[in-house]
Amino acid sequence: MNEIIKVEDLKRDFVVGEETVHALRDLSFTIAEGEFVTIMGTSGSGKSTLLNILGCLDIPTGGEYYLDGVPVRKMGKNDRALLRNRKIGFVFQSYNLLPKTTALENVELPLLYNKTVNAAQRKEKSQKALESVGLADRVNHRSNQMSGGQQQRVAIARALVNDPVIILADEATGNLDTRTSFEILTLFQDFHAQGRTILFVTHNHEIARYGSRNIVLRDGRVIEDTRNKNIASAKDTLASLPAEEEE
Amino acid sequence: MNYKNLIVIAFRALINNKMRAFLTMLGIIIGVASVIAMLAIGAGSKQSIHEEIGQMGSNMIMIQPGNGRFGGVRQSASSMQTLKMTDYESLVRETNYLSKITPSVTSSGQAIKGSNNSPTTIYGVNEQYIDIRGYSVGRGSMFTNQDIRKAAKVCIVGQTVVDNLFPAGEDPLGKTIRFGKIPLKIVGILEAKGYNSMGMDQDDMILAPYTTVQKRILAITYLQGITAAALSEEYTDQAIEEITEILQRNHGIKIGQENDFNVRSQQEMMETMSSVMDMMTILLGCIAGISLVVGGIGIMNIMYVSVTERTREIGLRMSIGAMGRHILMQFLIEAVIISITGGLIGVLAGVGASGLIKLIAGWPVSIQAYSIVLSFVVCTVTGIFFGWYPAKKASELNPIDAIRYE
């Protein structure tokens, strides 16, 4: 199996005033292609810091991080931007769609910063990504005309459009009600089934049941790393939820 | 870097904020429009004054008696008797740079025909006068050299005099009118010329042989002035020098002594007027330029606020792979699009405003190509200059902080 992510003795220190805060202490693990990893931990456990580093937004103080075999620590700002553009798909808790912009234009965004993609390809890829998240009929809806679940789907389509090696989700269901959360989770499971690698950061323990592997952080260290043999189906859970009134 | 995509990005960002973009543009629109309109008014006034002075004969030179003293009392020019026929004659004989020259005597009085009369001025000149002043005889003909020698009682009249004395519309040609007590036969009618820039009616005049005016009306032998035309505009200065030398010699004026005459050219008048108009144009241009700068500061203000307001958007763009320079270029392109679009609308508004000013106020305007190019370049530079700082600030944001900015 291909190693998508490999971290070795990863350290990240922050200097706050005269104190040094060790947010990450000698973290080591690898994530292989096709895994659906949930990363859990209480606030202050270092999950956000880890996510920033894995997302090439931040660089570690010590150790090394390989993304798809490429060492990231010594990379410059622009090279990391390029890496984010080609290899990573972000999904945020608060969607972060451009306001008043159509779904299609939002999804096109990563490709606009990729000069190897021309306008026709850009439109085609974006359209396909929107179809894959079930929004084929919402292509020209503006972000303020959509529900939270729909907005998050657009965000997922945006994360997929550049065909990344990994999708990094940061509390992707945190702003959604239970039902919509499971809809989004179903979507993630579908992509997992298609062989995509997903890393889902959350503090919601329940979500671990739907991933293939769970890593728990505390005080900047991995305290638990378990493979999930019985992956629960989000689709089934969704079906078992008490029926709500349809919108 | 792909500029086409960046322009697409910038355009989409602007379209999402139409109202804000328009309000930002407004400053530039007003700035550019006022620069163009102000310079058009300035240039228009200058041009119309030039034209009118040119119509009066841009190579005209006027010689007047002056600086005379009578027992220590300085006298007014019209009462001076220092210019004589001999001066005129020696100028005719000796100058090389003059094409035409005429003696000039004038008198104001009442022109009378039957029961109609009107106050006017009679100019005693020779037949070259109309060429010097840029008049032309419409109907009839100019009086002749022979008329001058005989001090004939003939005259040429301007259109205003015709209108006043012949209100019924009868043909004035060949009729005899009176100027004061002297009967003058009309042999020609001047082509109408209208009012000049100083508001003087150029058609309210009677031309007669200078001998007639000297002997029969004023009863004098001296001249009140000499009017001449240089060969062309370029020779005016040489002509003035020549005239001054000849008159100094004739009048026995030694070096260092005050001349008892004045030589002035139309060109000098034109230059004086031009410099006044230039000053006015610069003043108007400055005021308009200030409004353009204020417009530019408006761009900076809005862009600056918008960087703060769009921090999350910038964070997102960075997290999906935008580099610092992409963000810089996006904001810069937005600023330039605003200023160029504002500039274009401003040019149209400026041209429109100039047209309206001409139509409603009746002021002469002349839209200057350079003012359009200038204001366009200035507003583009303004956009880049004032857009740079906010754009730089945006590009230096830390994506981690920006994406979580509340």
Tell me the fraction of residues in β-strands of chain B, as a range.
Answer: 15-25%
Mass-distribution shape of chain A? globular
Question: What is the CATH superfamily label of chain A?
Answer: P-loop containing nucleotide triphosphate hydrolases
Mean pLDDT across every amino acid position of chain A: 91
Radius of gyration of chain B: 34 Å
What structural class results from the helix and strand content of chain B?
alpha+beta
CATH topology of chain A: the name is: Rossmann fold
Please characterize this protein's 3D structure:
The complex is a heterodimer of chains A (about 250) and B (about 400). Chain A is α/β, with parallel strands linked by helices and about 250 residues long. Chain A has a single domain, classed as Rossmann fold. Chain A contains seven helices and ten strands. Chain A has helices at about 45-55, 75-85, 105-110, 120-130, 150-160, 180-195, 235-240; strands at about 5-15, 20-30, 35-40, 60-65, 70, 90, 165-170, 200, 215-220, 220-225. In chain A, the strands form two sheets. Chain A has a six-stranded mixed beta sheet, sandwiched between helices. A four-stranded antiparallel beta sheet of chain A has the order 2-1-4-5, covered by helices on one side. In chain A, helix 3 (about 105-110) packs across helix 4, helix 3 runs parallel beside helix 5 (about 150-160) and helix 5 packs parallel to helix 6 (about 180-195). Chain A is globular and about 50 Å long. Chain A starts with a strand and ends in a 7-residue tail after the last helix. The relative contact order of chain A is 0.18. By secondary structure, chain B is an alpha+beta fold. Chain B has two domains: about 5-50 and about 270-405, no CATH class; about 105-230, no CATH class. Helix content of chain B is about 55%, strand content about 20%. Chain B is built from 13 helices and twelve strands. Chain B has helices at about 5-15, 20-55, 85-95, 130-135, 145-150, 160-165, 210-220, 235-250, 265-310, 310-320, 325-360, 370-395, 400-405, and strands spanning about 60-65, 70, 75, 100-115, 115-125, 135-140, 155, 175-180, 180-190, 205-210, 225-230, 260-265. Chain B has a six-stranded mixed β-barrel with strand order 4-5-10-7-9-8. In chain B, strands 2-3 form a two-stranded antiparallel ribbon. In chain B, a hairpin with a 2-residue loop joins strand 8 (about 175-180) and strand 9. In chain B, helix 11 (about 325-360) runs antiparallel to helix 12 (about 370-395). The two termini of chain B are about 30 Å apart. In chain B, about 45% of the residues are buried. The mean pLDDT of chain B is about 85. The interface of A and B includes residues 57, 81 and 99 of A.
